Structure formats: structure tokens, C-alpha cells
């Protein structure tokens, strides 16, 4: 398993799960921003993961796929927010669901939040 969780996400603007950014004031709410993608585990990883899932514990192949997908969704959220003119995103959340039924091996990952314009206090 890679330690991609330790790698920084290349953020060009501040993103937070909070609804304020310390030391800044929100001047304007620009609206909902999001980044979405559908990712497949892949046939080989799927079979290997199925065997590992028979044992208790973490399934690193799935962890890597989900972590990578969340990072990509967050990057897309940032790109969308910037296209709206935002310089920050507040209230960031993630959601995920199976797509095409559980047997398809597809997961939708959605990152969403509120695009805002902030300024230092």
C-alpha cells in the first residue's frame, strides 16, 4: 500500500470542513461547488481484494483506490470553485456510493462545499 494519505493535496486555495477560516472574513458566498468522479477498482485488484476481504482487517487495494479518488474529487472541487471566482471553499464534505449495482465494482466519489471569496481581517 502506498502512503498517499501522507502526500499533500496541491491546494491552490484554502479548503475547510468548517464554515469559517480563522483570520479571514467571508465577503461573498458564490454557491455550491463540487468535484465528482466514478472510479473502478479494476479486475486484477478486485480479485486480489476479494481474497483479502475473506480475512479480517484492511484491504489495502481498496484503500488506495478510495484515497486516490477522494484526492481527485477534491482537486476537481478546487478547480470548479476557482472557475466561479472563489478564493476559498468552506463546508467541504465527501460522499460516496456504488454505481451500477454492487457487482459492477464502480464507486462514485463526490466532494462538495461552498465557494466563497474571503479576505484577511
Distance between the termini: 43 Å
Structural class: alpha+beta
Strand fraction equals: 35-45%
**What value does the average pLDDT take?**
81
Low-pLDDT segments: 43-47
Number of strands: 3
Q: How many individual domains?
A: 1
Write up what this structure looks like.
The relative contact order is 0.31. With 121 residues, the chain is an alpha+beta fold. A three-stranded antiparallel β-sheet has the order 1-3-2. The protein is built from two helices and three strands. 29% of the residues lie in helices and 36% in strands. The longest helix is centred in the middle third of the chain and has 24 residues, at 60-83. The protein has helices spanning 43-53, 60-83, and strands spanning 24-40, 88-99, 106-120. It is elongated. It has one domain: Hypothetical protein apc22750. Chain B (Translation Initiation Factor IF3).
